[in-house]
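Methods — Computational structure assignment.
A single polypeptide chain was analysed. Its primary sequence is given first, followed by the predicted tertiary structure written as structure tokens.
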Amino acid sequence: MKVAIRVPGKLYLAGEYAVVEAGYPAVIAALNQTICVTMESAETGTIFSSQNPQLLVDWTRKNAKIHCHTSHPYALIESAMQTTEDYLALQRVEANVLYKLSISSELDNEQTGQKYGLGSSGAVTVAVVQAVLTFFGQDARPDLVYKLSVLAQVSLGIKGSFGDIAASSFGGVIAYHSVDRSWLFEKMAQLNISELIEQPWAGLAIESLDLPRHVEMMVGWTGAAASTADLVSHVQGHLNEAEKEVAYQGFLAASRVCVEQLIAACRLDDAQKFQLAISENRALLRQFAEDMEMVIETETLETLCRIAERYQAAAKSSGAGGGDCGICFVEKAEQKEAIIAAWAQEKIQVLPLSIAARQ
């Protein structure tokens, strides 16, 4: 028995930082660059990643729990395996076969291993969950994969909106409202995994969207990586200060209005309103960063955006900021060509990314 699963990475188009709070939307795109997970039955269970080619981790089961023979850096992978097997057990699907699990990634620089900020941890979680479900003959529907992946990450204390998980689970472009984490923690203490999966999750909403026709996304890589967890923690560390709390609440309210306008522009196929909403989201993030005394739009990202705007394209940072990728949206081939040339002069690399198909 062997399965091979490919799962897309992601980029935030709008709504980052606000979406970590329940009820505040984001728009996220899944990308054609993927994480690949293969599984095949074996006499000895193993975990392998192409990012650590010298490391092969052996594992077995003890009392229905995955037990690795040595310490390893794959806690997220092990949690995804265990969470999915726990769910399968409650479905009366017996995980009685050991398997080799192998992971390779297109989400980082192949030569240097440097991260592009495309959501590799979310994609890995989704890919492992989907692979285990498929391996044991279960329907790996997107909502099930999303929920199991969230539970796998929450069990490790991982924070965030889980928007990367949603994008990797559903593909395409999505409008995303995150689950209410307080509700989730409460229900995790009351229900088993199967019961929790079947519950509607408070706050959670995922809607597939299409970009307006003739709008093309371009992605520029600035050469620096950022950690969402570190930057989100930085924000949370300032929230006790009254004046910053007021600014934060103002940012949340304004972000909701802006992202809802972006979602409406997608539904209405309105390229002009889409571009305006992207520009407005950039302005909100810049003010938010100033108020919170943090870096979202680096000097290079500012240059990336300024060049795009010179050619009448909307642009902004994507995701945590502080480095990583910037995005811009063009409607004409001559815009695209001019921006690529100008970015190259500033050593901004155009990544060959496009939006992945819906699952």
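Note: The mean pLDDT is 91.
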